[in-house]
Write a structure and sequence with these properties.
347 residues, mainly beta, N-terminal domain of TfIIb, 2 domains, four-stranded antiparallel sheet, 1 helix, 28 strands, 2% helix
Length: 347
């Protein structure tokens, strides 16, 4: 397991978020019962639910435990160490809940600067690094005393951040670069040039490589000619791009792929969802890519507790939560779900 960086999290963000509510029908059962935090909008609630039973242990555990309601939708949830970090980006806040009893410990409030928190990573048990929407800074946050420690200037429009040990990588989408921060110095130690529009980053299970998923040119700026969506493999020891792999197979043209979600399992398999397909990319050597599924998948995530891939698929009739094998990415079970959930976190 990745040191510190493989904290359990599975979140669906912004308009791509899709959901599960108590009246949905199970398509195929899963073999063991699992608990999930499920954040809803309209009204804004945080339910504690079991699958496959679909039993709500709490309809709104946030309000029932803390005596107050969520005042905006949850946009992301991350579990790390003793805490759940509950993002409310529209109010520029992250609520910190105790894992043992779901009590609100602290609220990280960025409203004075009007910074919308986008993502977070943890190189150790005392520090969090936070990126914000359409911002060029990374905030180092002390999660012992729960206060900001410093701001670090990175590149333009950071979109993803991940940590392994003391190395923190973040994608700068508008600069076509990856910034490398060392948690011992809290500084950007190197900037690595990568393919157009880097949007996602994660580490291989052994921490020797960072994998960056780039959209390619022409996906954000429609005036540009389209280029291939690409996976770049960065050697963490040398900070050099050692391999690239186009995202596509056979007749599926890489230039037409628009990556929307990405994760790496503990089996050295990257799962890349584009608008129309899910690809399986072997990350040990980076040589083999194959088609895992077809359809519009807006979100993918890896559940480290159950060693399963979770994917959200949406078509004209249904939205479906799919549980998949972490090696083959073949479907194990699925649920028809609805559109009112903004974030899901297996616990």
């Amino acid at each position: 397991m990745k040191k510190y960086s493989k904290y359990l999290y599975f979140a669906f963000i912004a308009l791509m978020i899709i959901s599960c509510e108590p009246t949905d029908n199970i398509i195929n059962n899963i073999s063991t019962s699992s608990k999930f935090l499920m954040a809803y909008k309209e009204p804004n609630t945080l339910a504690l639910t079991t699958l496959p039973e679909k039993t709500n242990l709490y309809t709104d555990i946030y309000s029932e435990i803390n005596g107050s309601s969520l005042t905006s939708p949850v946009t992301r949830m991350v579990g790390f160490y003793s805490y759940y970090f509950v993002f409310r980006a529209n109010e520029y806040k992250i609520d910190v809940l105790n894992k043992s009893d779901f009590k609100l410990i602290q609220t990280m409030d960025f409203s004075a600067e009007k910074k919308k928190p986008l993502s977070i990573c943890f190189p150790n048990v005392t520090d969090a690094y936070i990126i914000f929407e359409k911002d060029s800074s990374v905030m180092l946050y002390d999660i012992v005393n729960f206060k900001p420690a410093r701001s670090i200037i990175a590149g333009r429009y950071p979109t993803s951040i991940a940590a392994y040990g003391n190395q923190i990588y973040l994608t700068n989408q508008l600069d076509n670069t990856v910034s490398v921060i060392d948690s011992r110095t809290h500084k950007v130690e190197q900037t690595i040039q990568v393919h157009n529009a880097p949007t996602f980053v994660d580490f291989t299970p052994d921490g020797t490589k960072a994998v960056v998923i780039s959209l390619g040119a022409g996906k954000i700026d429609s005036t540009q000619a389209k280029t291939a969506a690409l996976a770049s493999f960065i050697d963490v020891s040398t900070r050099l791009v050692i391999k690239t792999k186009q995202i596509g197979t056979g007749a599926i043209v890489p230039a037409n792929q628009y990556p929307q979600a990405f994760t790496i399992t503990n089996r050295n398999i990257a799962v890349i969802a584009t608008k129309d397909y899910v690809f399986r990319l072997e990350t040990k050597f980076g040589d083999m890519i194959s088609l895992a599924n077809r359809g519009s998948f807006s979100s993918v995530g890896y559940n480290f507790q159950s060693d399963e891939v979770m994917m959200i698929k949406k078509d004209t009739k249904n939205t479906t939560l799919i549980i998949a094998d972490p090696l083959s990415i073949s479907q194990k079970s699925s649920y028809i779900i609805s559109s009112n959930i903004t974030s899901i976190l297996p616990i």
